[in-house]
Amino acid sequence: MAPTSQNLGKWNKLLSRTGIAWFCIAAVGQLAFIAFIIAHYGTRTATGNFAGWNDKQLIKGHVPGDDAGNLMFASHVLLAAAMTLTGLIQLIPVLRRRFPTLHRWSGRIFLVLACTLALGGLWLTWGRDTYLSLVGAASVSLNAVLILVCAVYTIRFALARRLADHQRWAMRLFMVANGVWFVRVGLMGWIMINQSPRWMNSTMSGPADIIITYGSYLIPLAVLELYCAARRSRSAAAKAAASLLVAAATVFTAIGIFGASTFLWFPQL
Fold first, then answer.
1. Is the pLDDT of residue 213 over 50?
2. CA 168 – CA 162 distance, rounded (Å)
3. Is the pTM higher than 0.90?
4. What does each C-alpha distance from 184 to 23, 209, 249 come to in angstroms?
5. Cα 163 from Cα 77, distance rounded (Å)
6. Alpha-carbon span 68 to 205, nearest angstrom
7. What is the tens place of the pLDDT at every residue in 120-179?
8. Residue 233 φ then ψ, to 5°
9. What is the pLDDT of residues 189-199, one digit of tens each?
């Protein structure tokens, strides 16, 4: 028997609520990430304590004599906080409705910063040799390419006034542009659940490292596509399955945020 409109409405409401729950959890985690960047890197940069960047374990932070690399690193890290904040602003419906100018300008800033950070990440990876393994370097490069592709389509559909397509590509851009945040949440979520760094190694080239590194943007992108497909679907089963998937992603994200906040970010403040 085909589902009634009333039943589909209930499943749509459940699906929407799981999506909102994930966003609320993610927003808390991203604000914690922003606070960490400002408190750790922002204060040290503002006071000229550039060597203090290395108080937190890094692949390659401050290097004496490498003025270009140090400047690029500082710009990359600090702009990441601004990009994360403007990305969050884009996804809050009440701000879109009540403050359309803020939405438009924060979106433009987010898009420019996402592209700038993608290109900067490529330079830091290959120009400064900021990687632990070629597997990780390739992951960063693929992430950068996806960011640039999503940015191009986001702009293209905005200019064409195809707002539904623009919104879909903007959401995709949000997912891939936050790969750096997702990888930290993913790594700590895995460690917290297993109570150990199982299948990981010091060069982040272990089986779990590879899945999490590439999955930091491919998995959120896939979940987004399934979520959107379920919203369009007339199948109650598809909506139920997507709701369960997003609920599971919400729980994992919460665990990862707790782990990252407890062991990676707040201890440095």
1. yes
2. 10
3. yes
4. 17, 11, 15
5. 31
6. 28
7. 999 999 999 999 999 999 999 999 999 999 999 999 999 999 999 999 999 999 999 999
8. -70, 155
9. 999 999 999 99
Contacts for 122 with CB less than 8 Å, ≥ 6 apart: 140, 141, 144
Are the C-beta atoms of 234 and 8 separated by less than 8 Å?
yes
The count of other CB atoms within 10 Å of the CB of residue 166 is 19
> Residue written as tokens 């290395």?
54
How far is 56 from 47, CA to CA, in rounded Å?
A: 17
Per-position DSSP letters for 149-217, written without gaps between them: HHHHHHHHHHHTT-HHHHHHHHHHHHHHHTHHHHHHHHHHHHHHHHTS-TT--TTS-SHHHHHHHHHHH
CA dist., res. 79 & res. 84, Å (int): 9
Amino acid at the residue 125: T
For the record, the structure tokens of 27 come out as 């927003």
CA–CA gap between residue 90 and residue 23 (Å, rounded): 12
What is the rounded CA–CA span in Å between residue 55 and residue 185?
21
Q: Quote the CA–CA distance of 267 and 260 in Å, as a whole number.
A: 10
Q: Which two tokens stand for residue 10?
A: 């209930």
